[in-house]
User: Fold this.
Amino acid sequence: MPESRGSSASRRRPPVVACYAALAGLAVATPTRASPPADAAVQIDRAVAEEMAKAREPAVSIAVVRNGRLFYVKAYGHARLDPPVGVTSSQPFAVGSVTKQFVAAAVLLLAEQGKLSLDDKVGRWLPGLTASDRITIRQLLSHTAGYRDYWPQDYVMDFMMKPTTPDAILDRWAKAPLDFQPGDEWQYSNTGYVAAGRIIEKASGQPLNAFLAQNIFKPLGMTSVQFVDQTAAPVGGPQGYTRYGMGPERPAPLEGANWIWGCGHLAMTPEDLAKWDEAMINGKLLTPASWRAMETSVRLNNLRDAGYGLGVGATSDGAFRMIEHDGSISGFLAENRVWPDVGQAVIVLTNTDRGDPSAIADRIAKILALASAPGDAQTARARAFFEALQAGRLARGQLTPTANAFFDPTVTGDYIKSLAGLGSITSFKGTGLVIRGGFTREIYEVKLAKGQVRVIARAAADRYEEFQIFPLE
Assistant:
């Protein structure tokens, strides 16, 4: 705790099978900006109830983003068990290590302001830490620094129920010998994020929470966010629960003040977390270069892909790029998955640390077939444009002035020459559709006699602002 356990499949806790449908029976919906088809809502509700029963989750609260905007919000079950109190989707849940992406974003904002660099040595800001003259801020954020994680256990140890300070954590764990040389390995470390939080304070001249509130939560309208580094439990939120073996749900013990500071100390509603995911999808708040830095998996010294960017897992669900992080603190689990290229996100929060929110996220993703697809007319138009290029013709009348300027003689020549040798089309399938920046972003997978390519087209008013082709093999 607070932690991420790698890919959603590898880190999933096995659910405890038990008859617990009674708690899943209470569902409270709130108004949403758009409603899914009735059959999808029914399927989501059924899936959540089934997974709650398997994992014995007292409450689950979800949000779904589709086409870059909020699509569905709902809460299920009980915020408290004794006496029974129903949960609502306006209640904040602790999100654990989902916090880390906000801390990483704060560092990126400071880099944009010229107050620090990702490649600064940690020693510029925290000179007393081990190997601080060799470890970079980027390595702190990507878990490649080598600092030993101060909390790998899945329970609250007795000494952690007493208050501490961020500096006390660093004095004990970040001044010890490294677990590995910087950049040699990837190993999850909450210690690195405590260090990152202190660097934010030194570079900005503000307390960490004040900087996050002023520069991230207020601009995005995330009004429900709470900082639970002192209390470990959100005010007005559900009770957090735990279980010991096959025993009953019991109120989870609380971490002492500051034990989750910088690495897992945020609480919010799923709808507010969805506002962050929308910002990621639509490229708000950070510059494109900063989003790219966050979402790009780092390479270790041996050039192996770590599968982790800055504060987020950077991977794929097998079809689309996926940015993911889970969260775990005493009494709460969280799962936040974003598919930026197709404008989708799934958020699942629960008030037990023995639940399985990733299983619910899996079910929702399958039910919604997350990627909206281009319609028949869009697909036919894109195919005709593609076939014209194959035949040596650029349909300039279908391009905006910007796209016409892009297709200069070199670009046009390379496209025509490289496509000509691929042979006839055997399949032209639309796989993704997102609205962004006033354009539809259409994604197609194209199979040809001698190869396979992906087409990404942006269009407005029946003209292409972009028509890019990328090899898939």
